[in-house]
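User: I'm putting together notes for a lab meeting next week and I want to include a structural view of one of the chains we've been expressing. I don't have a solved structure, so I'd like a prediction I can at least talk through. The sequence is below, exactly as it appears in our construct file.
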Amino acid sequence: MKRRALAVSVLLSGLLLVHTHVALAQETRRATLTIRAGEPGPQISRHLYGHFAEHLGRCIYDGLWVGPGSKIPNTRGIRNDVVQALRKIKIPNLRWPGGCFADQYHWQDGVGAAEKRPRRVNIHWGGVVEDNSFGTNEFLDFCEQIGADPYVAANVGSGSPQEMADWIEYMTFGGDSDLARLRQASGRRDPWKVPFLGIGNENWGCGGRMTHEYYSDLYRRFSVYARDWSGNRLERIAAGPGGTDLRWLDVLAERVKEGVQGISMHYYTLGNTWKDKLPATGFPEKDWYAVLRDALKIDGLLTDAEKIMEKHDPGGRVGLYVDEWGTWYSAAPGTNPAFLNQQNTIRDAVVAGATFNIFHRHARRVKMANIAQLVNVLQALILTEGDKIVLTPTYHVFDMYQVHHDATFLPVDVATDNSVLGPDSLPAVSAAASRDAQGLLHLSLVNLDPKVAATVEARIEGPALRSVSGRVLTAPAMDAHNTFAAPDRVQPAAFTGASLQGPVLKVALPPRSVVVLALSS
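Assistant: Thanks for the context. Below is the predicted structure for the 521-residue chain, given as structure tokens.
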């Protein structure tokens, strides 16, 4: 009797083990890709990897500016460690001074001797006093140090066309005028090159609460005075919609036909409501799904925006500039809520990778994108504390995706399982491909599932490829992040989960991961 009971027990244990293995096998997500490498598309502008720094919280002050008298190593007041980190990822452009701050900012406050600059209240971000020690010269010096093109946002909400025209002349005019002399007296002899000019910011909201029609008419007026001086060539960018209000875009694109090279769009990922934001760490699995679900909505939003632009600008002359995007959570405990400081986890890295893959698919019309923000604010690339810095998981995605800068878009057809939790469903795998100037094919893959691995089989059409290598960014937990005590907890590593046999590429993606592969002949 005991032998029979033991045999039954062993049999049941074996069946349970088999069932467990089957369940685990079924849990692996699958995706099949066709990479149409012989059908090149538009160029993926490096400016899709742009950045944004506003006078908000500790982004400028402590974040990138410490002043020339600081004990923190700096060059003319700008942190050397931040410069070094940003040069490494070749950031293409930087938008400044806002954001909402732009439409209260008067550029004259930030030039000349620092000790004589006026102190103003920052009405948008906590009512703190802005001492204007970081102004135009400091910003443009910072851009030169990191190798980025300046993108300045002019004040429409509380400014005037004359003020904007004077600022452009101060920065870019190489002749002999009073404003050029003021620049020279402030320490800069030669004019700067400033390729991007935003005329206003969120003028439907913090930039003046304007109507669609009123802002469109104001833009037409301001743009007349945005002149090209001394060989500088401005791309003039109109302040477009925020969120999903595409009627603003429709009205603006219909009414503004001249003096515009781009229209901006803003889209933030919340996963919940503006009033009840989600935590950046310590979140449940349902929050992962909610955030990724909202992040992916930008794909449909861009498709709808492109249809509007095609109606008004069928030749594709005017680009879309997503010059604010990223995750927005509740403020980190113990910080000033008006400073928008939040931690940055592997979830944010997955959001960034999936978002870049979407931007690539819209590269024919989308010419720039700027993550919010550079340091210490929202989905920051860098966190600072005294003389220490931390590179976030989002920073590492920007690093890994450098290979797509100015590369040629290659179409990718994706058929993928879905990851499902309650009412939310996500595509398990996101993908994008490009070919660089040296002929290397790069494939970026994101496993959006927080817990389950994915297998990818890709068929590559076009020239034969013989070798594959890559890097992976993943982490042991959904909210894994880097801290000042453990700055390297989440960082890229060499990836060995890809194999190439003729035109077929097989990849094993860990859960919650971003992988970038290089394939060569």
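A couple of points you could mention at the meeting. Residues 44-406 form a domain with the TIM Barrel fold (CATH 3.20.20.80). The chain has two domains: 29-41+410-520, 44-406.

User: Perfect, that's what I needed.
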